[in-house]
């Protein structure tokens, strides 16, 4: 797994025009985010507040979850607890089975991706239709999302036209976004009308009120939960916040960080089932409490899934969502994937130049690049750093602890580079040289220049 | 006791000695007593960032030993300084000695602006310059504001360079995007690393830069290596070399 990201990234970058198209599309979103954030004079204080609320909540998570459960139950919701993805899927299936549901619509939820809910339900004879446009596109294509907010960002409009032609029977050659969206809308409208249940994610669950909030731009969560009588909401344990008053801090940050919008088109509060209907909330752990147990890792549970760290990441923009072995790509995905299963995602902590742009853009101040650094150290301890690199670092450390050896080695390396530059190609510099030149070796090191300079100034003084 | 311990990163010592020399001359030109501890080698950052903590620790320990006696430690490299300032306390523990050294270690620009209090720079640099602010200077040392954070903009390096007569600092489309060097990232993720570097160079070229200036030779070595391979006539220069001949007034 240690070569997963570099190999996929190389393949993606090979198509230079497409990789640059991807880079520019996402940079455009980053610029929109900058403009949105700049309109809020207290932006940095909002981030501070959001990080503080998350840190506080995570430090008393069990209490807030139980408070949410009490109040949600009093509101008429049914609350379920799932230890892992399997249990979550079983609970959701049980609810659907009881109601004889064979057709369900679903708005965006990375958690259900994490639990592999769709294949689980499909194998049990339930049709699941993703109703977010981007999600529907990747679902029709049989792909996972390549971005957490813009799942089909890797596809060009012409390719979507082709896909719709093949799957939805639209005329060949369509590429006008408005027209394609209208076709998807008509297609989805039928699915909404035929659905017997709707599933949504949860952006924020409010302990104080026992209500929860779902944010979308397309209104698909609203339509998917107002037409059918049964609503299932899946949430990770980290989604709870203490009070309704805290919500505004997050909604102001979320929309601007995600797309630069001042507010998302739909911010819907759910408090009770529809008259005669049922509202189920499934609260899922699936490894989160392990992260919660560690004070540093815990920070990553503050993530509100805005995707800003993906958009700003110079590596993600040039390597694409599918170059990451974890289902959530980009910096936050590398952190979450690494914390979850480092052996399975050993290349991800290294798929970063550690530039820190992710940390500065994050609306809840997750120290993403330092988390990656900690994961690299864990990888080192667990023997997940490639042997060549490890040996190189061992040798370098040995030499660097001995100034005489370092200076002699440096002199020799400079001489060799000057005398036989071709030799570098077979050494560790080979990968460097594939696309770049090495520096021109100087005759003398700084240490030698220093001696002369200092001797010279000594003479001046005498 | 010498005022300043001169910290010359290992690769600067071996490959860019003129940058070390320029730093030495700037500091001595300010009337400071500067000593270059001969026993210094590497701060341990390459090992640390690769996850090889066991290999990094002895180097960090000897660095602390060698440099603890100085009033200030100054290096022409934001990245290596951030290793000492930001990561040593994690690596070695927050002992009084490590914490004190972290507080007293500076990249050249921040030392000149914050500690020495240079307010005026008298010198010439009649060229169009693209300033490549490297990530560790921006987001670890906070030598300048970052484009992500909505703080009041500032830039200590630019503050110095902009006073050089004749200089024109060009405006980049992406003012602080990473060049893609990233230490071993440059080799492990070679394809993305090179693409990032070429994109940075293209931004500088579009902005009309005749030279790329920076405060980390590692980024500049990567960008220069790409420019030379592609035949792009865009030399690189370290901030210290630009300030070497100038008169710095407190």
Explain this structure to me?
In chain A, 55% of the residues lie in helices and 10% in strands. Chain A has 462 residues and is α/β, with parallel strands linked by helices. In chain A, β5 (204-206) and β6 (211-216) form a beta hairpin. In chain A, α3 crosses α12 (244-259), α9 (157-168) runs parallel beside α10 and α16 (330-340) packs parallel to α18 (368-381). The longest helix of chain A is centred in the N-terminal third of the chain and has 23 residues, at 16-38. Chain B has 250 residues and is an alpha/beta fold. Helix content of chain B is 50%, strand content 13%. Chain B is globular, with a radius of gyration of 17 Å. Classes of the chains: A alpha/beta (462), B alpha/beta (250).
The biggest sheet of chain A, with number of strands, parallel, antiparallel or mixed sense and barrel status, is: 6 strands, parallel
- Secondary structure class of chain B reads alpha/beta
Distance between the termini of chain A: 64 Å
Cα Rg of chain B: 17 Å
**Strand element count of chain B:** 10
Mean pLDDT of chain B: 97
The count of DSSP E runs of length 2 or more, i.e. the number of strands of chain A, is 10
How many helices of chain B? The count is 13
By DSSP (H or I, 4+ residues per run), the number of helices of chain A equals 22
Overall geometry of chain B comes to globular
| Radius of gyration of chain A from CA coordinates | 26 Å
Shape of chain A: globular
Average pLDDT rating of chain A: 95
